[in-house]
Design goal:
Elements lengths: L1 H25 L16 E5 L8 H7 L4 E8 L3 E2 L3 H10 L3 E8 L5 H11 L10 E4 L12 H19 L4 E5 H8 L8 E4 L15 E9 L7 E7 L3 H8 L3
Parallel strand pairs: 1-2, 2-4, 4-5, 5-6, 6-7, 7-8
Antiparallel strand pairs: 1-9, 2-3, 8-9
Helix pairs in contact: 4-5
Length: 245
Amino acid sequence: MKGMEILKILCAGVLIVFSVYAFLIWEGILFIGEPINRNYSVRGIQVSAKYGKIDWTHLKKDMNLTFVYIKATEGKKGKDSKFEQNWKLGKDSGLYVGAYHEFSLEQDGEKQAKNFISRVSATPNTLPPMVKIVTVQEQDGIAPDPSKVKKQLKEYIRTIQWYYNQTPIIYTDMDGYYQYIDREYQLYQLWIKNVTCYPFIKENRQWIFWEYKETQPWTYGGEKQIGLSVFDGSYKNFQSIFGVK
């Protein structure tokens, strides 16, 4: 009798866990592969030299893409070797294009901004510049002083905004968000990477892009996988917010 009671309790526990898990998936809090309960029709990727020679002719259709962000620079001196080529071919493919800078947590923010400006011209009908905050775990494992990082990031953003007359987008994962962003930069749109669940942010702060997958197959050479992101809104919202046609 005791054995049957234990079995019933275990079965009930499994049923409860399964029901909660199913509810979280249905609500879009957790997901397997693709968020199934929201219509994220505007999708995009980030590319750099490490992705090799890209077949831009077929990329848009193959991956059902609307936009692509192309790496231009890194730190105060680094330049992506394929930026000019990817920028031209990306535009010619019919995708909306934007350029991004990989931010060094321990280098002068203004010098990093000038590196980006030296590579990326102010071009009509393109997406705003994006700055990519790479977390400590993805760099060298040594945590810089958050206050110093925030100071340099503010210098970077101020210089970029003045030059392009556009508000840059800030990309980071959840660790980077809580280390370096959190309640600051309230006027800037966020691109959040979170591949395990919906990116909940404190105080109901909204994100504009969500990188929900980092293992999308990539068949164009170089890396074998690429991250896949969605825009939080419709195609018309996308055009309106970014002023593109």
